[in-house]
Design a protein that fits this description.
alpha/beta; 6-stranded parallel sheet; globular
């Protein structure tokens, strides 16, 4: 029996796809191993949102070459779709699988031998059709369930549409079938993931006519038995409707936790980014959430150092976030990506300035989360504890406050009433 090891770069959706690939390979008779172990096949599922992801992929291939030069190396994911020839030129890479072929990996391996010239299986992203549902299930606590893929937006900084293709999604019926499987496996919490999650409902091959909606999916999941907790991983502010907010506020199973990409608190920068909203709409969404759920945790994605972001425009973002009633940020330093509109924009921000702005916002994020946590001291909230680590249990409240406590067997994978200290 041959063995296979996986390594994932990038987002939660990538992790859910890697987990699905692993289960598919085990069905084909492969033994799954840890990436640091010796394996017959190594699969790297790549991201290409930042320059570092590309570099990390190259470093991983070099590590495999040193450890197991006779093993097969397969690269798939976003980087593989965007730059297949560049990857094929990396010494040690045997197979490059684009977006349309990643889930056919077992068939491709049957025809592959070490020493053959690197095989590239990729196509134009416009030709990528169909939706492959995926979920991660590393333990019985939380799983990430992919319900949507691709994006029809044209943000000037983003390569995701080039790597993932047009927006398409599972059906509500298909999602519920996956939920039943996850419930049978013992999952307590499902995080809904996608590239543009709020765009759910365009069908497995996409299209302009919407067949279902994300709001309809949320309603169906809340009524479906088997899973105790759901989270919405990330949703664009223009797609986060008041009806979704109002429904979550009185939901039985959806947690009071939203993650809403902002990218910039400056309308001038948002315009250059080709985002589909302005800061006023974002502020309205946050206010609507907090009016109904004062205890709700709100996360924010923000990019610093976008071309033309002057010190004054950065201060606009800082002040906007400082005043906004949000809980934490994911801060990204802008990096130039080929084949995007932003790469040719004038007034590039020096790299050291980008890094300094990143640090400033990360510090503000820390202060925000400290303040949010302190607001709930003394309150009793439900915590879902996960697998033990170093004798400790970690878990999250319904509103995403992290809790840590000495391990107790009875609390592992359990939802416990907890008083926040």
């Amino acid at each position: 029996m041959k063995s296979v090891a996986f390594h994932t770069l990038g987002c939660k959706l990538n992790y859910s796809e890697t987990s699905t690939l692993g289960r598919m390979m085990e069905t084909e008779g492969f033994v799954k191993k840890e990436f640091e172990d010796h394996a017959d096949v190594y699969v790297i599922n790549t991201c290409s949102v930042t320059e570092n992801a590309d570099k990390e992929c190259r470093q991983l291939v070099r590590r495999i070459q040193r450890r197991a030069p006779e093993s097969l190396v397969v690269i798939t994911g976003c980087y593989a779709q965007l730059k297949p020839k560049e990857i094929a030129a990396i010494e040690g890479v045997d197979l490059v699988l684009g977006a349309a072929e990643k889930f056919n990996i077992a068939e491709h391996l049957k025809e592959l031998s070490k020493g053959d010239s690197t095989k590239i299986c990729s196509c134009d992203i416009e030709d990528v059709e169909g939706f492959q549902s995926s979920f991660s299930l590393t333990d019985r606590t939380r799983t990430f369930l992919k319900v949507q893929d691709g994006c029809d937006y044209t943000c000037s900084f983003c390569t995701i549409p080039l790597a993932r293709g047009h927006s398409r999604s599972d059906s509500i019926e298909g999602v519920l079938q996956n939920v039943d499987e996850l419930a049978a496996a013992g999952a307590k919490e499902i995080v809904l993931t996608g590239i543009n999650l709020g765009d759910f409902g365009k069908g497995t091959n996409g299209g302009k006519k919407r067949e279902e909606s994300f709001f309809e999916l949320v309603q169906a999941l809340d009524e479906h038995n088997g899973i105790e907790r759901y989270r919405i991983s990330s949703i664009e502010p223009n797609l986060l409707s008041n009806e979704i907010i109002e429904f979550v506020a009185q939901s039985r199973h959806f947690m009071p936790h939203f993650h809403i990409p902002l990218q910039s608190g400056s309308n001038e920068v948002l315009g250059k980014m080709r985002r589909r909203y302005r800061r006023e709409l974002y502020a309205e969404r946050v206010a609507a959430i907090k009016a109904l759920m004062p205890h709700c945790c709100i996360g924010v994605d923000v990019i610093v150092g976008f071309p033309g972001e002057t010190e004054e425009l950065f201060r606009e973002t800082f002040e906007f976030l400082h005043e906004l009633e949000v809980s934490y940020f994911h801060v990204f330093t802008y990096s130039e990506r080929a084949n995007t509109l932003a790469v040719d924009m004038p007034d590039a921000v020096p790299m050291h300035v980008r890094h300094e702005r990143n640090k400033i916002l990360r510090n503000l994020s820390y202060q925000k989360m400290q303040y949010f946590t302190e607001q709930h001291h003394g309150q009793q909230r439900k915590v879902l504890f996960e697998s033990p680590s170093n004798g400790m249990l970690e878990g999250y409240t319904d509103n995403y406050i992290k809790v840590k406590t000495p391990h107790r067997e009875a609390w592992q994978h359990a939802i416990v009433d907890w008083t926040l200290a």
